[in-house]
TrEMBL record:
InterPro entries: Kinase-like_dom_sf, Prot_kinase_dom, Ser-Thr/Tyr_kinase_cat_dom, Ser/Thr_kinase_AS, Ser/Thr_Kinases-Pseudokinases
Biased composition annotated in UniProt, kind: Basic and acidic residues: 326-344
Domain Protein kinase intervals: 22-294
Keywords: ATP-binding, Kinase, Nucleotide-binding, Transferase
Record-level Gene Ontology MF annotations: ATP binding; protein serine/threonine kinase activity
Pfam family, one: Pkinase
Full protein name: Kinase-like protein
Keyword Kinase: yes
SUPFAM superfamilies: Protein kinase-like (PK-like)
Region ranges (Disordered): 326-345
Organism: Schizopora paradoxa
């Protein structure tokens, strides 16, 4: 009994023989050594994805060992940001094991994130989930080695799930003195420079936590640009040369959330430093939790926006309460009494104020263009002046309304 057979025997409780039905005859996804089909699991009563090995296992001992390791490693992983392993079953002429996981209707992060603003707050949330899953893998001595948005699936709750462990490396089961086993190499565009630099065969760099961090930086780039790294280079040889020569991806166009974009871009640049200078995954998680979207005065821009709108709401409530005062003390002169023309003027001011509020932007916007800072500050003063005038106008309308009601009651 070889290693693959021994592994399958030890995982008999995950054997789904006879439980997988309605398997699609056409593959719906492709990997380096496998194809992915949709099917139905009777045991789980849900649609599942079946990962079927394409190559023959009969005389390929390295592939049999690699597949055994993949199944063994995946079956032991349990984290909110790692795709769960449901089981396996054997099929085909060689009775090769196919791996089963839940089918993700929302597909990969590559497609899913295009539904949301590029480089926005949700980008940070998704990246934090990816980093959490990666941190868990590293804590289990597992290196992903092929991290990219195409290998990150999205659950029905919108949670990112790391997948494609066909190229993952289990450090705990080593055949090298360094403690790392090498399976299938990752995709060039996401690979760290040290993995591509020509070196002595005995000193050949192997995927590790630091190379996963480099790839994480490329995932950030994907979400900021909606493009693959080095998208302008069509030939893999040119991509490899660019990485080896230290040519990093160019900065994408900024998004509508410049502070968020800036911090995410700086984070990606740190991921592409020399291995020893790269942040750990835990440091990535900490920075994604605290450093994004910070304004010049140290406050979160989203919180600033909420505070500004809260002030507007509170002002509206205050104006509503002031109508009680206007019943006793109408602050209007004889020529300010309510007329159709005066009401139109007041409502015109109110509409302009609403437009002004909608045009307001966080104060840190002024720091983007130092030359026009004074102009932007004056613009904001004028906008807030309109808001104040509108509040006064609404207050006057409340007073006129109260006075009109009082007059109608006296006439009755």
């Amino acid at each position: 009994m070889d290693r693959l057979e021994s592994t399958l025997s030890s995982l008999a409780h995950l054997n789904l023989a006879g439980q997988i039905v309605e398997k699609n005859v056409h593959a719906e996804g492709f990997g380096g050594q496998s194809d992915v089909y949709s099917a139905w699991s009777r045991r789980h009563r849900k649609k599942v994805a079946v990962k079927q090995v394409r190559a023959s296992l009969r005389n390929d001992l390295p592939l049999r060992r690699s597949l055994a390791k993949e199944i063994c490693t995946w079956s032991k992983l349990d984290h909110d940001n790692v795709l769960p392993f449901l089981g396996f079953f054997t099929e085909g002429e060689n009775m090769a094991p196919s791996m089963v996981c839940e089918w993700m209707e929302d597909g990969t992060m590559t497609v899913y994130m295009r539904k949301f603003p590029r480089g926005g707050a949700y980008t940070r949330t998704m990246l934090r989930g990816v980093a959490a899953g990666l941190s868990y893998l590293h804590s289990k001595k597992v290196i992903h080695a092929d991290l990219k948005s195409h290998n990150i699936l999205i659950s029905r709750r919108g949670v990112p799930l790391l997948s494609d462990f066909g190229v993952s490396l289990a450090l705990s089961q080593s055949q090298y003195s360094s403690g790392t086993t090498v399976a299938v190499k990752g995709t060039y565009r996401w690979m760290a420079a040290e993995l591509l630099r020509p070196t002595d065969a005995k000193a050949q760099a192997k995927p590790d936590e630091k190379t996963d961090v480099w790839a994480f930086g490329m995932v950030i780039y994907e979400l900021l640009s909606w493009k693959v790294p080095y998208w302008m280079l069509k030939n893999n040889i040119h991509v490899v040369l660019a990485i080896v020569n230290g040519d990093l991806p160019t900065k994408p166009d900024e998004s509508d959330e410049p502070n968020m974009f800036k911090h995410l871009w700086e984070l990606s640049l740190d991921c592409w430093k020399e291995a020893a200078a790269r942040p750990t995954v835990q440091q990535l998680i900490d920075r994604l939790s605290t450093d994004i979207n910070i304004s010049e005065d140290g406050r979160d821009e989203a919180s600033n926006a909420r505070r500004r709108w809260r002030k507007v709401v509170n002002a509206s409530i205050a104006i509503h309460r002031m109508q009680v005062w206007s019943h006793h003390e109408p602050h209007t002169s004889e020529n300010e009494r309510s007329t159709p023309e005066s009401r139109r003027r007041v409502w015109h001011k109110a509409v302009n104020a609403v437009i002004a509020i909608r045009r307001m932007r966080p104060s840190s916007q002024a720091t983007r263009e130092p030359v026009g800072e004074a102009v932007k500050m004056n613009d904001r003063r004028r906008l807030w002046h309109k808001v104040v005038n509108a509040c006064i106008a609404i207050y006057k309308m409340r007073s006129w309304s109260q006075e009109q009601n009082a007059n109608e009651r006296r006439d009755e």
